[in-house]
C-alpha cells in the first residue's frame, strides 16, 4: 500500500458557506490509523507511533476494520484540549 499522508490545515481567510463543515483547531497529534491486518498508527511524518497509544489501538481493533482513518489524537483536561499533557505522554 502506498503511504497515505494526513490532511493538514492551511491558512486562509475566514468564511462561512453552506455545504462546508468546519472543525475547531485541536492541539493534538495528527494521526493516520491503518486498520488492515491489525492496527497501525502513523504520525504526519509517516513514522509508526502505534506503541505510544495502546488504548487507541485496542479500541480501534475492537470497533473497526478494513479502513483508513485520518484524525487527531488529543488529551482533554476539564473539557479543553491540553497539549502539554499530550506532549508529556509522547515523550
Task: Characterise this structure.
It is a single chain. The chain is α+β, with helices and mostly antiparallel strands and about 90 residues long. The protein has a domain at about 30-90: D-amino Acid Aminotransferase, Chain A, domain 1. The protein has helices spanning about 55-65, 85-90; strands at about 30-35, 40, 65-75, 75, 80. It is globular and about 40 Å long. The two termini are about 30 Å apart.
Order of helices and strands: EEHEEEH
The 3D shape can be described as: globular
| Largest sheet, spatial ordering of strands | 2-1-3
CATH superfamily of one domain: DNA ligase/mRNA capping enzyme
Structural class: alpha+beta
Overview in brief:
The chain is built from two helices and five strands; from the N terminus they run ββαβββα.
Secondary structure topology:
Blueprint (H helix, E strand, L loop, with lengths): L28 E8 L1 E5 L11 H10 L3 E7 L2 E2 L2 E2 L1 H8 L1
Antiparallel strand pairs: 1-2, 1-3, 4-5
List keywords for this structure.
single chain, 91 residues, alpha+beta, D-amino Acid Aminotransferase, Chain A, domain 1, two-stranded antiparallel ribbon, 2 helices, 5 strands
